[in-house]
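Appendix C: a fully annotated inverse folding record. The material below is reproduced so that readers can follow the format used throughout the book. The structure is listed first as tokens, followed by the designed sequence.
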């Protein structure tokens, strides 16, 4: 497969909101977002939402600029 484009040529930053921070988010979505962060992809996690406040507290340090919602 072709190599991904260099971060500086990828265009405008995308915004992402994680709705539900359960097992799938923890095992798939959050690790994928962390990988993108590590590779300097232009995106922002703008919101985290989960009915359980403890899940928000768990993931908030990974995305400190994200707004937090419980409903």
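Designed amino acids, in order:
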């Amino acid at each position: 497969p072709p190599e991904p484009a260099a971060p500086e040529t990828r265009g405008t930053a995308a915004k992402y909101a994680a709705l539900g921070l359960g097992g799938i988010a923890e095992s798939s979505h959050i690790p994928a977002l962390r990988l993108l962060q590590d590779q300097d992809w232009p995106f922002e996690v703008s919101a985290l939402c989960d009915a359980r406040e403890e899940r928000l507290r768990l993931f908030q340090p990974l995305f400190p600029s994200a707004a937090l919602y419980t409903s």
